[in-house]
């Protein structure tokens, strides 16, 4: 019988998935997983639950809000507290809609922009692998420009400026607000200001992706600097927020799309459009994760716990970076490793080559991405020495050049 | 470093574009809810939203669901990402529940064994409809779908938004408040060969009027003959009979026809929004029955490719509840009992309303044939508006009443109001 699914071919899987599978199968006692971008505790537990989340879940169990339909825009307390976390207060000119975590919030933003005629989206390289697919999925084009300079191991600000200056005026720039994935290399305040200048002068549009708020400085307020600065400049932009990392709510899918528009008459329109997009795709975002996030951000006791949790996570990441650098210095590992301290968040773009990363897996059971991205949360007091000694050995055995 | 520009930045072009965004029409049902909230009449009744309310008018958490949540909280599950199409355990649970039908569906069991059923967790029912719509847009030869008239308010928008064209087939006779079976068959026969056809598995939304097994046979024969692609939407499994295992006659029959090679493929959208009361947790699935195990693998990989750029992966709170209930025999029987009592209440109150309605000039017999969460009253938009304005009874203007808003405390008031309105 002829098939209706003519021409259907098996789609290739994300290479990170194969790495995850290999890592899961490996039961060597020294195994270190520094691949997937999730937080791991000092004891190496990737299933770490933030104490404030645990407390919120217990609260919800006692004072059960049930599972009823929420508003189409999302849970009101959640939206309000999500705005406060991003903007520091409830801004009067931001339309916010709950979304299916960070990806869902970006998808909403891209769909909205597409609906008003934007079609060119600029993505700095290297970047989160899903941007390209997400932009194409809504029927738009992505244009890549270098964000990172592999030589200097820092932001290639000249290339960023060039891209901003040369992009057609109706272009969208997608920039990560903090803890750049995969490089860990963020823009300085001065660099942000420079970028905002060009965006404002040239009538470009900015989408912030903020997936790791708090994991750089240990303080969610400090990590929202770029967005708050853009807001104070009265720019129009969209901020796409996720609680996957800074509350560890990964699979609960808690996110938010915040659209900042200065024509107040537009606000309801923008909200209605976001709701309409959602309505035809998922109806609305899931409740449970949003209820946890709302509680954590509104209950004074949980708020305090969360601030402490985030600070602890931020400090641990910084501490383990210091330890790693100390070991590389002590071992006199070839190459300059000092950049590890200049980076922030989960990721460290190590400069480890593809061959070296393959050998690290083969010989030492250390799983990093083939592009050299190391999730430093996979390191802790008890394995950082083994990690550094392994890298040291591999770098000597298989020199980078 | 560049100084901040002193030139005022030009927003004219962008704002012009922002201003072009048309105000999207508000969702009718939610608009009714909002008006209901504002109404100060103590006797007000909300018959708009399709969610269950108990006899005191309150939403419930199924006791079995609450127990599953307690188990989950004690176990403290991890929050790491599940797969793009959900966890294997969820997929297996759903597949086994629906297609193996508690060991009673030999054809379905065989299809599972042959690896021909692809199941992906989705963002509840809407998400599953959207995923299959996008999938069909990309890979199906036919790019049109026919849906019953009337159907769930959002069906057409979901399909057309994905780029399919949608058309109606006859379903309901508003004059006689009955299934319009002759025209249903005729309009399906008139559709283009290979069209996608949307079928409501049970508790047709909004009419509550389902086909009999004999009628399904006739429809399935046309589907086979015209090579239509059946897309089954099952949002209310369990709400017709009280038992989810009894409400899937259509699925069992389709599985047989697939095994016999008469209908090569079909797809099923379902959710646990209603039958576990997981509305806000967005817990559903899409299953596609493929012609072979290898085709199933290809389909699965394409579903992943489709979902990843939309929202990466689905939420787990609801799906963990489902997994927990299906992996514990006691919880499973508790859930079945919970569901049975929910449906039982709806049927009791439906009968009560029927008894109290004035039948002298109005035939209410259709109420007794309708099943599920709704009664399709046949009242006109004017009558519905009068109910709202004079009696604070809120329903959609198509005359669909959500029976779950009715209880023994307000059924007399409601019946009186309706009797007054139809007198004119």
TrEMBL record, chain A:
<comment type="similarity">
    <text>Belongs to the class-I pyridoxal-phosphate-dependent aminotransferase family.</text>
</comment>
<keyword id="KW-0663">Pyridoxal phosphate</keyword>
<dbReference type="GO" id="GO:0006532">
    <property type="term" value="P:aspartate biosynthetic process"/>
</dbReference>
<keyword id="KW-0032">Aminotransferase</keyword>
<dbReference type="InterPro" id="IPR015421">
    <property type="entry name" value="PyrdxlP-dep_Trfase_major"/>
</dbReference>
<dbReference type="GO" id="GO:0030170">
    <property type="term" value="F:pyridoxal phosphate binding"/>
</dbReference>
<dbReference type="InterPro" id="IPR000796">
    <property type="entry name" value="Asp_trans"/>
</dbReference>
<dbReference type="InterPro" id="IPR015422">
    <property type="entry name" value="PyrdxlP-dep_Trfase_small"/>
</dbReference>
<comment type="subunit">
    <text>Homodimer.</text>
</comment>
<dbReference type="InterPro" id="IPR004839">
    <property type="entry name" value="Aminotransferase_I/II_large"/>
</dbReference>
<dbReference type="GO" id="GO:0004069">
    <property type="term" value="F:L-aspartate:2-oxoglutarate aminotransferase activity"/>
</dbReference>
<dbReference type="InterPro" id="IPR015424">
    <property type="entry name" value="PyrdxlP-dep_Trfase"/>
</dbReference>
<feature type="domain" description="Aminotransferase class I/classII large">
    <location>
        <begin position="30"/>
        <end position="390"/>
    </location>
</feature>
<protein>
    <recommendedName>
        <fullName>Aminotransferase class I/classII large domain-containing protein</fullName>
    </recommendedName>
</protein>
<dbReference type="GO" id="GO:0005829">
    <property type="term" value="C:cytosol"/>
</dbReference>
<dbReference type="Pfam" id="PF00155">
    <property type="entry name" value="Aminotran_1_2"/>
</dbReference>
<keyword id="KW-0808">Transferase</keyword>
UniProtKB/TrEMBL annotation, chain B:
<dbReference type="InterPro" id="IPR000796">
    <property type="entry name" value="Asp_trans"/>
</dbReference>
<comment type="similarity">
    <text>Belongs to the class-I pyridoxal-phosphate-dependent aminotransferase family.</text>
</comment>
<protein>
    <recommendedName>
        <fullName>Aminotransferase class I/classII large domain-containing protein</fullName>
    </recommendedName>
</protein>
<keyword id="KW-0032">Aminotransferase</keyword>
<dbReference type="InterPro" id="IPR015424">
    <property type="entry name" value="PyrdxlP-dep_Trfase"/>
</dbReference>
<dbReference type="InterPro" id="IPR015421">
    <property type="entry name" value="PyrdxlP-dep_Trfase_major"/>
</dbReference>
<keyword id="KW-0808">Transferase</keyword>
<dbReference type="GO" id="GO:0030170">
    <property type="term" value="F:pyridoxal phosphate binding"/>
</dbReference>
<comment type="subunit">
    <text>Homodimer.</text>
</comment>
<dbReference type="GO" id="GO:0004069">
    <property type="term" value="F:L-aspartate:2-oxoglutarate aminotransferase activity"/>
</dbReference>
<dbReference type="GO" id="GO:0006533">
    <property type="term" value="P:L-aspartate catabolic process"/>
</dbReference>
<dbReference type="InterPro" id="IPR004839">
    <property type="entry name" value="Aminotransferase_I/II_large"/>
</dbReference>
<feature type="domain" description="Aminotransferase class I/classII large">
    <location>
        <begin position="43"/>
        <end position="418"/>
    </location>
</feature>
<dbReference type="Pfam" id="PF00155">
    <property type="entry name" value="Aminotran_1_2"/>
</dbReference>
<dbReference type="InterPro" id="IPR015422">
    <property type="entry name" value="PyrdxlP-dep_Trfase_small"/>
</dbReference>
<keyword id="KW-0663">Pyridoxal phosphate</keyword>
<dbReference type="GO" id="GO:0005739">
    <property type="term" value="C:mitochondrion"/>
</dbReference>
